[in-house]
Amino acid sequence: MIPHKELLAVLEELGYRATAPRKAIAELLERKQDSFTAEALIEELPSVGRATVFRTIKLLLEAGAVCKLATIDGSQMYSLCRLGHHHHHSVCIQCGAVEEFKAAAVERLISAIGSEIPGEVIDHRIELYVICGSCPFHGSR
Amino acid sequence: MIPHKELLAVLEELGYRATAPRKAIAELLERKQDSFTAEALIEELPSVGRATVFRTIKLLLEAGAVCKLATIDGSQMYSLCRLGHHHHHSVCIQCGAVEEFKAAAVERLISAIGSEIPGEVIDHRIELYVICGSCPFHGSR
DNA sequence: CTATAACTGATACAAAGTATCATCACTAAC
DNA sequence: GTTAGTGATGATACTTTGTATCAGTTATAG
Fold it and tell me: What are the backbone dihedrals phi and psi of residue A67, each rounded to the nearest 5 degrees, phi first?
């Protein structure tokens, strides 16, 4: 488990320097509980260059501290990851809030499906699109 | 079930005209059993304009004859859909071949998970990344 | 056959990154 | 404390994957 507070520490442990732009990005991400897009970070951190934002996101992705996921319409977004290596996400299509979940049942099911199709299952991606409990239109459709 | 041969017919049934560019795209897609990218279509059909290729893909997506899916690295690809509305895909990470599957167990599991998380599950996305039976490196890692 | 609405390609634009590169800033050695 | 060297940075240009605009073309109903 990687607590949010240690985003910078995660990078330092991997041998990257704790520079001012990385600090700014880490602090902003730690305040966010929702998902975020690269463009949003760039807008909210005008002092940090575009390339550096993308570079830092990439480092965090590689470190496993951030996940790349798809919105319901297929565009890209990111989200901090608290759970360890393998997990899935539910994304609120109203407010963008992301919850992580692990479900042993999912993994069992995937391997069951894997044994029914030819070839070897290497990886999988599961995303749930929800209207979360705190969203106004929850239940109204 | 929407057989591949009727891609053009699918568009006509929706009130779209059967024009030469659409015919060319439909015929190319019907020959493909694999997934495809928009860029590949554009390259293979130099006589059809870039915008028209994207427009036609969009129409086929809306018609449900084509699905948009993500590769293991998160980039976009498309694939013809033979099964009806709701299904999932397995994508070979070596050759790009896409198989569709429906699994009632998946749907049951999703609704079980849905009842454990706050909010209402609207939709979900599941992709399996495999090395398919006809790929050379199958089993070698 | 013709009117007209749908469709097209060219082009410009947009969003989401990536590559290049001169400059800047840590860090470690002296 | 300087300084050399590597890592990191921002500006800029470029790439990829589309979307918007628009003048010109084409399918099709009548």
Answer: -115, 145
